[in-house]
Amino acid sequence: MKKVINKYSIILVAVTALFAASCKKSFIDLTDPTRIVTSDYYKDSASMSTAVIAAYASLQDMYGKSGASRGIFPYGEVASDNSTSVVEGTGIGDFEYFTFTSSNPVLQSSWTYMYRCIARCNIVLARIDPIVMNAGVKSRWQSEVKFIRALAYFNMVRIWGDVPMVTKEIQTVQEAYQYGRTPAADIYALIEKDLTEAEADTNIPTKYAATTDLGRVTKPAVKGLLAKVYLTEKKYTDAVTKLGDFVTSYEGATHSLLTNYSDIFLTSNEMNAEIVFAVRYTKGNVPSTGSPFTNYFAASTSNAGGVGTGYLFNTLRKDLVDTMAANGTADKRTAASYTTVNTYYATKKFADVAAADLDADCDWIVLRYADVLLMYAEALNEQNTSNVAAAITQLNKVRVRAGLTGLVAATQTQSSLRLAIEKERRIELNMEGHRWFDLVRTGRAIEVMNNHFTKYAIRLNASSPIVQIDAHNLVFPIPISEINTVGLTVLPQNFGY
After folding, report:
1. Are residues 315 and 211 located together in one domain of the fold?
2. What is residue 68's DSSP assignment?
3. Comparing 1-15, 128-142, 187-201, 387-401, which segment has the lowest mean pLDDT?
4. Which pLDDT band, with edges at 50, 70 and 90, does 171 fall under?
5. Does 419 lie in the same domain as 332?
6. Whether residue 329 sits in one domain with residue 373
7. How many domains are there within the chain?
8. Spatial contact of 195 and 218, defined as CB atoms under 8 Å apart
9. Residue 460 has what pLDDT?
């Protein structure tokens, strides 16, 4: 898929307006006479292939790319007890102290690029039916963009709660103004529908053999994301069923834990057996398809491989480092996760020698097999108190790979295992964009974060009180420019902002 995206990168520059999603930074661009008219473009399978690739390319914008959004890490990591934004980086620091307002540029860019992604998917779904082409390929493309749309909405509903639900190609500016906030339950219903339909599509393969297709949506990716959605909704029985099916069907066949934890993140080993779905990047292209994370997360130029700048946007907090250290040297993940640069703890997971500043080869891993196993353990444990032993079986697969001794069911209760799973997820998936969403999902965000702020006496400045959060902080503010575009009556702000 890296090569597929690269192949069409120049074409995408010419036709990117076909898929843009903003109207005064909202859903759709105004018509520009210098741009290609979409009704004149979608004539055959080749043009539709370009549209599908554009939907994939929008994942780079959503998860982070130079000139686009910062990505998921400000929400998933900086807002949590995992990381700190040493350099605030145009709004990232607001996530650390929960001082953001609705004018925060990170929030705005995320909203814009997520809806751009959704718009590209909607264009494919609206235009593909009349195209004369191979029926199996057509069905697969439809399922792929349903997965991508579901992923975008899943991120949005977890960040903002109720958001506008757009499922069609918007044709006019006036139409765009009609979209207000849709209840989160309805957004989740759409996500489930898209993923269930994609999972049922026999044209979606279990895996791709061709290098050029690695990164496209597979059956395990659909099943894994649907399971995470169920878990987030606290539909534990559905999650257990889906995750059990995943493990039974794919463990050892298409997906498995790598023997060496550090090998998961090597740019020479991308799309390995542990990766279920990742957003792919390739450095050295014009226009850029490289990832910014090597530089974003580095503590210095040398720490970034000697190319570009170390921006210090996302470095490990001492609390995370101490949590890893508490496991002792037996835990192989500690040495593989970070390095100390001056007084900072810089992640090793996005190490590369960039082609230029913000232009590296590191993929963003959205879902990997260790995450699946830990979700399975969580779902089993939450489903029934009698599932402790079964949950520990899945948890111990991850612990043993890390070099730790497995837990013993006789010494665990549902409550103690809940915290053990939480800790395991924090260490195993550190700096991969999961921590904040995990804490919100399990109802632990307020308690954990306030204890963290108190423990380390975290303040905005020396004269400020210790930071504390409450229920309104569990979602983020709607960007003010979106509200100004359609009005508060159509797009009301989240409570407390």
Report:
1. no
2. S
3. 1-15
4. confident
5. no
6. no
7. 2
8. no
9. 92
101 torsion bin: left (phi>0), alpha (psi -120 to 50), beta (else) = beta
- Give the 3-state secondary structure of 123-160: HHHHHCCCCCCCHHHHHHHHHHHHHHHHHHHHHHHHHH
Find the domain containing 299 and state its range: 295-348
Q: 93 and 59 in one domain?
A: yes
Residue identified by tokens 């530089």 is 295
Q: ∠158-162-167 over CA atoms, to 5°?
A: 95
How far apart CA 274 and CA 221 sit, in angstroms, is: 12
Domain co-membership, 38 together with 156? yes
Residue 62 to residue 119: CA distance in whole angstroms: 13
Spatial separation of the C-alpha atoms in residues 99 and 229, rounded to whole Å: 29
Q: Residue 39 has which token pair?
A: 């009704």
Q: Tally the residues of the chain.
A: 497
Residue listed under structure tokens 């939907």: 55
Place of tokens 């542990």: 274
**Antiparallel, parallel or unpaired: β 315-316 and 83-84:** antiparallel
- Rounded CA-CA distance 153/138 in Å is 23
pTM for this entry = 0.93
pLDDT at 210: 82
Of 496, 494, 491, 475, whose CA–CA distance to 24 is shortest? 491
Find out whether 255 and 220 touch, Cβ atoms under 8 Å: yes
Burial class (CB in 10 A: 0-12, 13-18, 19+), 284: middle
Euclidean distance between CA atoms 346 and 265, whole angstroms:
15
Whose structure tokens read 């105004």?
A: 30
- Cβ neighbours of residue 391 closer than 8 Å, sequence gap 6 or more: 376, 377, 378, 380, 381, 417, 421
The span from the CA of 382 to the CA of 380, in Å, is 6
Nearby residues of 461 by Cβ (< 8 Å), 6 or more positions away: none
CA 423 – CA 323 distance, rounded (Å): 8
pLDDT score of 41 more than 80: no
Same domain, 152 and 249: yes
For 175-209, the DSSP string reads HHTT--PBPHHHHHHHHHHHHHHHHH-TTS-S---
Alpha carbons 22 and 125: distance in angstroms, whole number: 19
Distance CA 217, CA 139 (A): 13
Task: Write out pLDDT tens, residues 87-121.
Answer: 988 899 999 999 999 999 999 999 999 999 999 99
Give me the sign of the Cα torsion angle 228, 208, 291, 107: negative
